Amino acid sequence: MAAASGGGGRAPLGPANRQALQPAAVNKPPPGPLGFTQCHTGWMDKQEAAFKGWLNAVLVPAAAEGGESDEGAAAQLHALASRRLVARLRGLLWQLYSQDAELISVMLKVEQRINSGQMRMRDEEATMKNVKEGARARAVLASYHPLWLRLGMEVVCGSAVAGDDAPAAPAHLAAFVREQFFKDPQLAKQHPASSKAYWAALARLVLKRCLLLVALLDRVAAAPALPAAAPLLFRRDSKLKASAQASRCWPGSPVLAELVQPRLVGEGDVGRTLGRLGYRLGYEQDPRRELDFAVSNMAADLRDGLRLCKLAELLTGACHPRFFDSTRFPSDRRPVRLANLQLALDQFARAGLPPQQAGQQRQQQGGSTAAAAGCTTAAADLVDGDRQQTLCLLWRLILHFQLPQLINLSAVRAEVELVRAKAAQAAPVAGSAAAAGGAGSAAAAAAPLAPQEEVAAGSPHVAALLEWCAAVASLYGLPVRGFGACFADGSVFCLLVHHYLGHAYVALKDVYRPAAGGEGGEEAPAAAAGWAGPASTVSGQLEGARRNFGMVQGVVQSLGGIPPIVSAEDFAECGHDEKGCILFTAFLCQRLLEISKEERAAMVIQRRWRNRQQDKPGAPGWALRFAAARRRGVAAVVRLQAVWRGRAVRRQYQQQRQAAICIQAAYRGRRQRRAFFHHMVVPRMLQAGLAAKRRLEGSRYEGRLARAATRVQVLRRGTVQRRAFLRQRSAAVAIQAAVRRWQQRSRFVQQRAAAVAVQAHFRGGAARRQLARQRAAAVCLQAAWRRWHARRRFLRLRASAVAIQAAWRARQARALLQQHRAAQRVQAAWRGYATRKRRQQQQAAAVAIQAAWRGHAAQRAFQRRRCAAVAIQAAVRRWRQRARFLRQRAAAVAVQAGWRGYAVRHLLRRTRAAVAIQSAARGFLARRRLARAAAAAATIQAAVRRWRERRRAAAVAAVRRQMREMAALMREYQRRTAAALHIQAAYRGHVGRKEYRRLLAAQLEAQRRQAAREAAALAVIAPWAETFRDRAWFLRARRAALLLQAWWRLRYARRQAAAVALQAAARRLLARQRLLRSRRAALTVQTAWRGANVRATHPRRKQLADIRLRLAAAAADAAAAPHRSLGARTHAHLDALLASKHPASAVAALTGLALCTEAVPACCDIVVVGGGLPVLLGVVRAPCRSKEAAEALRAALACLANICRAGPHADAVFGAGNFLPSLGDHLQQQRDKEEVFMSVVALWQRLVCSPAPGAAARAQSLARQPDVLSKLEGVARLLALKLSADQKYLTKLEQQKGSDTSARQATKALLSTSRQLRALRGVLAATGASAEGASGGGGGNDTPLLLGKNTLVRAVLREQQ
C-alpha cells in the first residue's frame, strides 16, 4: 500500500486489509429498511438540520467564528483552513505593501514630509514617555480586529508576533504593540539611551508606522480579492468604525483623528493635509455587516430576508459585489421583510436561477409519496415560514450555485481518470484472491444507478461527484451506486479520506464496514439497506457507524472548511437525508482535491529542485547535458531565423501584389467610366436639351404669360423672403457671435489644460501618420480633379439650354420692372408704419422696465445701507465693551483685539449667514412637520429625485463627453482640411501654370494664323457683323447669369449650413442652461437639507441657538435705535468738530472720528464729504505746545491715516498745501514722545509705503522735495545719535553696576529710539534716500539689540522685543 505522504491515489486493498473491513455476517438479518416512510415529517427535520449547517458555514465561516479576543480567524490554529486563510491574508497584505505603486508613492511623500520636520509630534520625548498617551494609542489600535492588527503590524514591523502556526494570545499581541511597534531596538543601539535624538527618531518612526498601518489596513479591507471568510476590519464592540472620515452610521471619531491628530504640532485637519499628498482613506464599516447571521431556527431566521440577501451576495458575488448594501434594515415589519426577500429572489433570478416549473419539484425523500403542491417560491411563503417551500428553495440554490462553486467538472473527471488509471496499473500486481475481488469491484463500478438516485443524473455536478466516489471506493472493493444506503454506515467517507490522507488520519483497521454476502463481493439484498457489524445486534452496527462518523468528524475538524452536515445519529434515526449527504460529499471532495493538488505541486517542486541540483556545474554528467541543451538552443535559433526571413519575404511580396492590383483596378475603372460617359451620358444629355428646346418653342403664348406671372410672383416672394432672411441673419449673427465667444472662452480653459498631453501625443504620432495623411490628401486631390473635369464637360453640354432660358427670363424681368417698383413703394410705406408702431411699443416697455429696475436698485441700496448701519452700531458697542474689558484684563489684550478685529470685518457676512441659517431652519422645521405627516411619500420622492439626479448627471457626463469628442473631431477635420487645401492649391497652381503655358503657346500660334486669314475672311464676316455683336453680347450675358446663379447657390448653401449650426449651438446652450439651473436648484435643496440635518444633530446646537438669539436681539436693538449706528455717530462727531471754535480742543470728537474711520471705511467718505478733511489738516498744521494739542494731533493723525486707505483721499491729503513740511516739523518736535512720533510715521507710511496704487508715485514726488526730505533725514540722524548715546550709557551702567531703576529706564529709552529709527528708515527707503546718510555715523545700524549682562536689562529687552 502507498504511504500516507505519497500521491493522491492508493492501491487496492489486499486480502489481509480487506478482511478487517469485512466482519462475519450475523445469522439474524437486521430489521427492514429504515426509510423516511416511518416518519412523515422526519425528512424535513433532517434536511433542515443539514441545510442549517450549510447556511452557518456559508454565512458565518468557521474562520471568523472565533472570538475577537483570541484572533477570530486563527482561533483554531490546528485547522488547515484557518492556517490557509491566515497565509492568504498575510500574502495579500505583503502584496499591497510591496507592489502597490500608488501606496508606495504616497508613503514616500509622507515619509519625506516627516523627515523634513513639517509633520512631527508635539514634544516627542514627553509624548513617548507618557504612559497615559501610550495607553490611549494602544486603545485606538485595539479597535481593529486582532487578526488584522496582528498581520498589519507584522508587515509594518517586519517581525512575527508569534510562530507561523502558533496562536497569538491577547497578552502577546499587547506586548508586541508595546515593545516592538512603539519601540525599536535598532534605534536604541544607534542613539544613547534617553537622549533627545533617540526620542525624536523614535517619534518619527512611530508616526510613520501608524500612518502606514492605517493606510495598509484601509486598502486591504476594500480589496476586491478579499476572501469571504475574512473578518471585519474593526471589532464589533469598538466605538471606531471608520479609517479617516466621520461616518454617517457611526457617530464616533475616525481612527486617524484619534490616533494621529491629537499628537501632531501645527496641524489643523490632518486628513486634509495628508489628502494633498495623496494619502486618502475611505473604509467605513457598515453596521449591517456586523449582524449575527448565524441560523438557529430556519423557519424564523430566514423570514427577515437579511440572511437570504447575504447568501445571495455570497453565492452571486462575482456579478454584484455590493448587493447586500441595498437591503432594508431593521426588518421588523412585514413589508420590509417582503421587500428584502423579493430583492434576494430577484438577485437569484438575475444570476441564472431558472424558475421552477409545475410538476418538476421532486419528492423530498424516496419513500414519500406526497408530491409538492406549490412549485414557485414566493416571498410571502418565506415570510409565513413555509418549511417545504424554504427547503425547496435552498436545495435549488445548492444545485445551481453552491455545487458549481465546490465542484470543478473538468478537475473531478480528470481525478476520476487518474484513479481508474492507478487501479488498472495496480490490478496485475494483486494475487488470485485480489483478482477476484477486483472483478467484483469493476462490476460494481460499472453497475447502473439505483432508481432512487436518478436525481444525481439530473445535475452534472452530482453525477460527477457520484462517479468520483464510485471510482475511489472501487479501489477498496466497495461498490457505490448512489447516495442512499451505500453511505449509511460512513465507510465510504472513511475510504475517501484514507485514499487521499493515508493512515495518519484514518486507519483501515479501525474502519467499520457491513459484511458482504454472495459471490463476487456483492451484498445481499436484505443487508444492502441495513446494518452489519462485528456484533449480531443492531446496537453493534450503530456503534460501528458512530465510530466511522467519529473518525470522519475528527478529520473534518482538522481540515476545516467543511460544515458539520451529517452525523451518525442522522443516519441511525429513520435513515439519512440524501441531499445532506450530497452536500457533505461535495465539501469533502473540494477539500480533498485541494490537498491532492497541493501534494502534487510539492512533488513537482521537489522534482524541479532535484533537476536543478543535478544541472549545477560539477554534478555528474553536467557537461554532456549542457552541450545537448546548447545544441538544441542553436537549432531552435536557426529555425526561428529561417521562419522570420521567409515571413518577411512573403510579406513584401504580398504588399507589392496588392499595390499592383489596386493600380490596375483604378486604371480599369477610370477607363470604363470615361467610355460610359462618352457613349451613354453625353447622348442622353444632348437629347434632353433638344427636347426641352422643342417644348419651349411649341408652347402657346398664354402658357408663356401664365408662367411669366408665376415667375414674377416667385421673384416677389423670393424678395420678401430674402429680406426677412437678411433680418434673421443679422440677429443670428449677433447670437452666433455671443455663443461662439462663450464657447471659445470655455474651450480655451479645457484646451490649455489638455494642450501639453495633446501636443506630446500628436508629435509622437506625427511621423507615423505622415504617410497616411499624404495618401488621404492624394485621394482627395484625385477625387476633386475628376469631379471638376466631369463638371466642366457637363457645363459645356448644358450651356445652350441655360443660355436660352436666361435670355427669356431677362426679357420678362425687364417687362415687369415697373410693376416691381410700384409694389416696392407700397411695401416701403407699410413697413414704415409698422416700424413706427413697433418702436412706440418698445419705448413704452423700456420705460416700464427702467422704472421697475430703478425701484429694485433703490430697495437694494437701502438694504445695504441699513445692514451697514447695523454693523457700525454693533462695532461701536463692541468697541466700548472692549475698552472696558481692556482696563480690567490687560493680559488678554492681544488675543481679544485680534479676534474682535476679525469679527468686525466679517460682521456683515455673519449677519447674512445668520439670516440664511434662520431661513433654512424655518424651512427645515416646516419640512419636518410635513415629513412626519407623510413619511412614506417623502421616501418615495427622495428615491425618485435621486434617480433623476443620477440620470441628469449621466446625461451631463454624456453631453460633456460628446462635446469633447466633437471638439477632437473638429480639430482633426480642420487639420486634414487645411492639409488637403494646401496640397490642392499647390497641385492646382502647377496644373494651372502648365495649362497657361500651353494655352499661351496655342494663342500665339492662333494669332499668327488669324493674321494670315483676316484679310481673306474680312469680306465674308462683314455682312454678319451685327449678328456677331449680338451673339457676343448674348454669350457675355449668359456667362454672367451662370456666375450669378452659382454664386447665389453657394451663398444660399452656406447660409443654410450656418443657420443649422447656429440652431444647434443655441439649442445646446439652452439645454446646458436648463441643466445648470436644475443642478443649482438641486444643490440648493441639498445644501439646505444637509445644513438643517447638521444643525439638528450638532453637539453644540444649544450654543448656536443662543448665538442666533443674541444676533436677533442685536438686530432688533439696532433697528430700534438708528441714532446709535456708526454713520450717525460719525455725523455727530463731525458736527461737533466743525462747531468747535478751536479744533485742537475737540479731542473727544477727533477721538470718535478716529475710531469710526478705523472700523468702517465708509465713515472716511462721510468725513471727506462733510468737510472734515480741511479741519483735520488744520489741526496737523497748527503748532503743538500743550498736552491737549498733542492729544488732538494724535487723533487727527489717526483719522488722516484711516482716510488715506483710499487712493483719491490719499492723493488729496498728500497734495494739501504746507502739509508735508508740517509733518516734518512734528517729527522734529515730537521725537521725545513716542506715541505722537509713531502716529506721524504711520501717516507717512500710509502715504508712501503702502502697497495701494499711487503710493509709489507719491514716494517719487516726495523724493523731489528736498526741503521735506532733508527734515526727515535730519530727524533720522538725530535718532541715530541718540540711539548710540543710549547704548553707550547702558553699557556704562552695566560696567559700573549702576542702579536697577536707571538701567530699566535706559533700556526702555533705547528700545523706544530703536523703534522710531526703524520706522523712519522705512519711510526714507520708500523714497530712495540712502541709509548711510540717515544713519548719522553713530550706532544707526539695524542689527538686533544684544541682551546685556544685567538681569533686569535682559528682562526689559525680552518684554519690549
Automatic annotation (TrEMBL):
**For this chain's UniProt record, which GO biological process terms are given?**
establishment of meiotic spindle localization; mitotic cell cycle; spindle organization
Q: Give yes or no: UniProt keyword Nucleotide-binding.
A: no
Positions of the Calponin-homology (CH) domain: 267-402, 459-593
Pfam families per UniProt: IQ (PF00612)
Task: List the subcellular locations.
Answer: Cytoplasm
Q: Which GO terms describe its molecular function?
A: calmodulin binding
- Which SUPFAM superfamilies does this chain map to? ARM repeat (SSF48371), Calponin-homology domain, CH-domain (SSF47576), P-loop containing nucleoside triphosphate hydrolases (SSF52540)
From what superkingdom does this record's organism come?
Eukaryota
- Alphabetically ordered keywords of this record: Calmodulin-binding, Cytoplasm, Repeat
**InterPro entries, per database record:** ARM-like, ARM-type_fold, ASPM, CH_dom, CH_dom_sf, IQ_motif_EF-hand-BS, P-loop_NTPase
Primary localization: cytoplasm
A single GO cellular-component term on record: spindle pole
Question: What protein name does the entry list?
Answer: Calponin-homology (CH) domain-containing protein
Question: Which classification does the entry list for the species?
Answer: Eukaryota, Viridiplantae, Chlorophyta, core chlorophytes, Trebouxiophyceae
